[in-house]
């Protein structure tokens, strides 16, 4: 499932679907727009109409959801993301590229305030606007990283830099072996790193983009 911000153009969403092998891995698209109360919502609806026609030709279900500008903007967005994630059996991609910046920031804040179980299903993706480049990460990784101590963060950064075995990590971090083993065990339990063959350690996919 794709939960995507939408504004006055369908280009970003169509570009993302093309990158996802023509949308073959997407069964449903939830386009989320922001009604700022100035009459511009009709343009968002027109944009969605074009998108819906395109998605229908690919047999992809879609819907347009409206967020209302006001003091409960973030809770509105959080409830929407929670509802969609809870009703879908699998990962939900939160695609933040189209629409006004306030909408994108609102959706990111809303997602970050979700509970741990729901956060574990969310993958955040954003593309550059007018320039190449993208970012993609699992929301749960960002939330866990924000609560880690400095030693654990340094271990992850060292692994990302190529220090992937215990001996190299001890030398690089000047850390007691017992402390390192305990930290690595904790990081593995949290799903941030894992031990592979010959005692090497690797980060979970995409985690390096957050370090």
From TrEMBL:
GO terms for molecular function: DNA binding; DNA-binding transcription factor activity. Gene3D superfamilies: 3.40.50.11700, Winged helix-like DNA-binding domain superfamily/Winged helix DNA-binding domain (1.10.10.10). It comes from the Archaea. Keywords: DNA-binding. This is CRISPR locus-related DNA-binding protein. NCBIfam families: cas_HTH. Residues 151-195 form the HTH arsR-type domain. InterPro entries: Csa3, HTH_ArsR_DNA-bd_dom, WH-like_DNA-bd_sf, WH_DNA-bd_sf.
